Amino acid sequence: MFENVQGDLHHIFLASVTLIAILNPFGNLPQFIAMTEGVKTPLRKKLFRNIVLVAFCIVVVFLLSGSFIMNFLFRVDLDDVRVAGGLILIIMGLKMLLFSQTTADYSHYHGLHFEELFKQSIIPMAFPMLVGPGTLATVIVIAEDSGMFIAIGAVLCAFVFLYVLFGYAASIERILGKLVLYVISRIALVFITAMGVKMMISGLSGIGVITSHS
Question: What is the pLDDT of residues 146-163, one digit of tens each?
């Protein structure tokens, strides 16, 4: 019994680390701060936490309905999702690594009231900046591979981490600095690309296109 619980906790931890890497909070944090420049710290905290809650709801809804959509609506199996999700992660990782926009203009967000800022920032801050197609494909793969319990536990752990992280966004940026956050985000993107390659190879092996040597 204890070994089963310990094993489940281990799987939840690994899956949550994977999700955190794909969500790439350290890469999104400087952009979120730039988008809300001039907003008072209490309002910024409230905005960021609301964005995280919206992103969490998107992931949970997709997680609970993803299997139905996959099996009955589009009639694709898990290996097809692995190939598509892996390809998305590879493209996303390479695009952000090689063609990242460090001079994006967020001036149209400045000076807005909180309600208007929240409405305008749900897209793109919650989706697709924080939660994108790669995240949604990954949670489906986790649920199908490890079970819904592991997937829900991993999503909860990942978003609790994000909730705390974005709640103290200004302090974290001040302590670490933009350069350190940038380096961490670049490292995370390398691992995201590697996870995409692994997911794609697993899917192609399941389909029978290639032979797995693992």
Answer: 999 999 999 999 999 999
Please give the Cα distance from 43 to 104 (Å, whole number): 22
Q: What's the distance, CA 209 to chain centroid?
A: 28
Give the model's confidence band at 46: pLDDT under 50 very low, under 70 low, under 90 confident, else very high.
Answer: confident
Question: What SS3 state is found at 77?
Answer: coil
Are 154 and 15 a contacting pair, CB within 8 Å?
A: yes
Q: What is the dihedral of CA 89, 184, 190, 12, to 10 degrees?
A: -60
Give alpha helix (H) positions in 99-168: 114-121, 133-146, 148-167
Residue 211 dihedral angles phi and psi, to the nearest 5°: -105, 125
User: Could you count the other beta carbons within 10 Å of the beta carbon of residue 59?
Assistant: 25
- For residues 93 and 192, the answer to whether their CB atoms sit within 8 Å is yes
Q: What is the pLDDT of residue 214?
A: 46
Specify the pTM. 0.80
